[in-house]
Design goal:
The chain has 123 residues and is an alpha/beta fold. The mean pLDDT is 88.
């Protein structure tokens, strides 16, 4: 399941991924992230996948740029701090990051919320 909310105190979209997550679920969720719902031009996302188990194939992960295409056109910049605690989900995050080739998209993976927020909120 993917849930999110906008935190106006730091202009961050907080995303929580839990349970088994399919690639199509991520793709469908991305379609909902619009400037009408997230009122910023420079999107900062805190993506907490510490309770997620991805059911992606390696090929799907490597096609992450397809899923991000629409999103990068909606915002000036996107900075995504991803939290993972298991080796396989961490590896998926690195593979996805390496597949995404947009100048206005940055993604880093962290093992703690504190480290993720520090990087995300640094200007």
């Amino acid at each position: 399941m993917i849930t999110d909310y906008f935190d106006p105190s730091n202009n961050t979209l907080v995303v929580v991924l839990s349970g088994e997550i399919a690639f199509d679920e991520v793709f469908d969720w991305i379609k909902t992230v619009t400037p009408a719902r997230v009122p910023v031009r420079k999107l900062k996302m805190l993506s907490d996948g510490s309770e997620a188990k991805y059911s992606f194939s390696k090929k799907q992960v490597q096609q992450s740029d397809i899923a991000i295409t629409e999103l990068t056109g909606r915002f000036e910049t996107i900075k995504n701090a991803v939290i993972h605690i298991t080796p396989i989900e961490t590896a998926f995050s690195f593979l996805a990051r390496d597949a995404i080739k947009y100048q206005n998209y940055l993604q880093q993976t962290f093992s703690t919320k504190e480290a993720a927020l520090e990087w995300l909120l640094a200007d």
